[in-house]
Structure formats: structure tokens, C-alpha cells
TrEMBL record:
Enzyme class per UniProt: transferase
Xref: SUPFAM superfamilies: Protein kinase-like (PK-like)
Statement: the UniProt record of this protein carries the keyword Transferase: yes
A GO-annotated cellular component: cytoplasm
Record region (Disordered): 1-24, 187-210
Residue stretches of biased makeup (Polar residues): 1-22
Protein name: ethanolamine kinase
Lineage, broadest ranks: Eukaryota, Fungi, Dikarya, Ascomycota, Pezizomycotina
Length: 437
């Protein structure tokens, strides 16, 4: 299968091909920096530090994406006589972080996620870190499109892989060192400076404890951090921030203690399963009729979350970046997806269920995903408001924010009955969600 990579639409996807590794190993740190202004020179310096034996080879760079979130380069050594597949087997992906992304993404946590997933054979081999990025192994595969996500064979594969993530990868808290240790470590090891919240222990404490009783980080701490990072230069911006903070407080009260799968009702969630982050794995010649299998890439947003949030978030991506709400899964499609997920989840746990118990779990999760359907719009709406101020990608983040937040408010109006009481027409997304088949 030819190698395809994700495109830099809306800055939320920067692709690589996912692969497997056996066991855990200490990740090397290279005290160098990738410089966008001297892209090839600085990238070559990093690659030759990692692969000094390539010095006399024919090194080529293939640029996949270039934006505020990441710069991603595939680096190959075109040795004579090797096939494309053999060259790809030795290829390296260089991923450099974009300016300003510490406002949104905890890069230390991302690396921790990658290493954790490697231990469970769910991520490509992380070869090294450098001052503003990482180097990891390239594995062949094909990125999906939103239309692919709606294919039965693909969504079944997604359901199985997502269940594997949720069942076997543990949720681990992030230990907080003293502020002095964080800053010293940052300078000593050339890591990015602490994010604004980590410079202020009181602010970090407020983030970590936004959902009492839940280990940090989690989906609630992420949203709280983002709300604190919103622009507040104008009265309108201050009003928007206050409104979103009030709503988050309401959501935490309503949702954070709902029962669900996993320890503390949290699972290790991807939280960004758009089409560009789902990779179709190549079939082997000896197993051409096997079911499709997929892997997930880009672990920037992965954090302990309710399983229902991760699933509802993925369903929202069936409509693609253009938010085509009439293409979201119907009730029957969601039920079939969740049935595949539940079967895989309990099989991965080594706890296969009776048909009666399995159906009870399916319908319980189906209802829970239904309840959570508006929260991804709130999550990505806040994110887009920040991106509208910092991103250099040619994308209308401000409009995207209003669309996603509009999904949340439409759900809220449907859930509390205010839409029906006002006599307004049901939103397209809500109408599609209620459609049976």
C-alpha cells in the first residue's frame, strides 16, 4: 500500500505512520534545535547525530506538513539497489513543535504518552528527542479520509483499536515537581520553558483540581487550562472567557462523576480521532482477506477521559473538517460501532461477557455516548478560539470555533428542552443524531 500522509487542515493533524515496538527503552536526548529558517541544514544535523552512518548516503527530505502545530519531515537514505519499501523501513520522521503550542499542548506529557503506548505496541518507535521536537520510526500505511471513517470495515477496525487503547493502556498521573526544579530542568536539558500555568503554582493547582477526585491530567484539566489561555484583551473576550468558565464549572458538576468504563471512570483516551489520525495498516500478501486493521497517530491530546467522550469525539469527525453534520452516524450505526467496541474491550480485558451482559453494556454505553455528544464541540470550540490568535495556518479558526461551540449549545438546548419550548427548528446535527438508520 502506498504511503499517504495527513494534510495540515485546521492544524489538528500532522501525520506519521504508526507501527509497533517491543518493550520499553530509554529515549535518547539530542541537545540540538530544528530551525524552520534553516530547515534542511538543521534537520540534517539532527539526522546525522542520530544516524552518523548516513553521512556518505543520499539523504532526502519529504515535507508532510508545516504549520503552527508541527513541522513534519520524512527523512530517507536512498541507498542504491533498495526498493521503496526497504528505504521506508529505515526512514525517520522528524517532528518539530510549532511556536506557541505550549499554550495548548503539554509536550512533556505527549512524550510520556508516546513512550507508554510504545510499551503496549501501539505507537512507532521513538528514536530520540531534541530541544523542540522528536524523531521516530516511519511505518508504511494509508491515512483515512472522513468518507473512509464511514466505511463499515474501517469503523469496525477503529472500534476494535479504540477498545484496545481503553482496555489495556493505564491512566497515569503527571507528578508535579517544584517550580524551581521545573525551571532548572528546562534550562539544563534544553526543554521548552514551562507553560504559563506551570509558572504559577496557584494557577496550576486550580487546573489540576478542576474536577475533584480525578487524577490529573484529564479531559477537564485540559479544558480548564485552555480557558485560562483564552485571549482577554477586549471586553468581549473577557465576557466570552467568563461564559465558558461558568459552563465548564457546570459541566464538571454534571459529568465528572458519571459512572463509566475504566478506573475512576477514566480510560487512556486519544481525544483527537479525526480521519488524519487513523492509519489503515497494509495487509500482508499471505493474509489478503483478513479484516482491516488500523492504528492511531499523534498523541498530543491523549489524556485520561471518559470512554464516552472519546467515542462521541470520534463520531463528530465523521463529518470531517467541514463539520458536515448530516454525515454523522445514525443511531443504528452508533449501536453497531459500540457493540464492536464492547466485544473487543472485554476480550482485551480477558473478561468475555455473556450475550445478555454484553447487550446490557452496549446499551449502557450507547446511552452514555448520547449524553456526551455535545461536549466535543465545547472542547474544540475553546481550542479554536486560542488557535485563532496564535496559528499561522491559513484556516478560519474563528468561524470553526463558532461552529463547534454551536454544536454544544444546540445539544444543551435539546437536552434541557429550551429549543422545543421556543418553537425553534431542531439543529441539523441534533436531527441527524436522532435519526434511527
Amino acid at each position: 500500500m502506498s504511503t499517504i500522509t495527513s494534510r495540515p487542515v485546521n492544524g489538528r493533524t500532522n501525520g506519521s505512520m504508526n507501527g509497533n515496538t517491543n518493550g520499553h527503552h530509554k529515549v535518547r536526548f539530542i541537545p540540538l534545535t530544528y530551525n524552520q529558517a534553516e530547515s534542511q541544514t538543521s534537520a540534517l544535523r539532527l539526522i546525522l547525530t542520530l544516524r552518523p552512518e548516513w553521512e556518505d548516503g543520499k539523504i532526502e527530505f519529504v515535507r508532510f506538513t508545516d504549520g503552527i502545530t508541527n513541522t513534519l519531515l520524512k527523512v530517507i537514505n536512498k541507498k542504491p539497489g533498495l526498493s521503496d519499501e526497504e528505504i521506508d523501513n529505515d526512514a525517520v520522521l522528524l517532528r518539530a513543535y510549532g511556536q506557541g503550542t505550549d499554550l495548548i499542548i503539554d509536550r512533556e506529557r505527549e512524550t510520556q504518552n508516546h513512550e507508554l503506548l510504545m510499551q503496549h505496541n501501539l505507537a512507532p518507535v521513538l528514536l530520540a528527542r531534541f530541544q523542540n521536537g522528536m524523531l521516530y520510526r516511519f511505518i508504511r500505511g494509508a491515512v483515512t479520509s472522513p468518507a473512509d471513517l464511514r466505511r463499515v470495515d474501517i469503523w469496525r477496525a477503529v472500534a476494535r483499536r479504540l477498545a484496545e487503547w481503553h482496555a489495556i493502556v493505564p491512566c497515569i498521573p503527571t507528578p508535579r515537581e517544584s517550580l524551581t526544579a521545573e525551571i532548572t530542568g528546562s534550562e539544563q536539558f534544553g526543554m521548552p520553558a514551562p507553560t504559563p500555568s506551570r509558572k504559577d503554582p496557584a494557577l496550576q493547582n486550580a487546573i489540576d483540581n478542576v474536577a475533584p477526585g480525578k487524577p490529573s491530567p484529564n479531559v477537564w484539566t485540559v479544558m480548564q487550562k485552555w480557558i485560562y489561555a483564552l485571549p482577554m484583551e477586549t471586553e468581549a473576550e473577557k465576557g466570552r472567557q467568563a461564559s465558558l468558565q461558568k459552563e465548564l464549572t457546570r459541566l464538571v458538576a454534571e459529568f465528572s462523576n458519571r459512572p463509566g468504563l475504566g478506573k475512576n471512570s477514566l480510560v487512556f483516551a486519544h481525544c483527537d480521532l479525526l480521519s488524519g489520525n487513523v492509519i489503515i495498516q497494509p495487509r500482508s500478501a499471505n493474509n489478503a482477506n483478513a479484516p482491516e486493521t488500523v492504528s492511531f497517530i499523534d498523541y498530543e491530546y491523549a489524556t485520561p477521559s471518559p470512554a464516552a467522550f472519546d467515542i462521541a469525539n470520534h463520531f463528530a469527525e465523521w463529518g470531517g473538517f467541514d463539520c458536515e453534520h448530516d454525515l454523522l452516524p445514525t443511531q443504528s450505526q452508533r449501536l453497531d460501532f459500540i457493540r464492536e467496541y464492547i466485544q473487543s474491550y472485554f476480550t482485551q480485558l480477558g473478561q468475555p461477557l455473556s450475550k445478555t451482559d454484553e447487550e446490557a453494556e452496549v446499551h449502557r454505553l450507547f446511552m452514555e455516548v448520547d449524553v456526551w455528544r455535545g461536549i466535543p464541540g465545547f472542547y474544540w470550540g475553546i481550542w479554536a478560539l486560542i488557535q485563532a490568535t496564535i496559528s499561522q495556518i491559513d484556516f478560519d479558526y474563528a468561524s470553526y470555533a463558532e461552529i463547534r461551540l454551536g454544536e454544544y449549545w444546540a445539544w444543551r438546548a435539546e437536552a434541557d428542552g429550551s429549543r422545543k419550548a421556543s418553537g425553534k427548528e431542531m439543529a441539523v446535527r441534533e436531527r441527524r443524531w436522532a435519526q434511527e438508520s
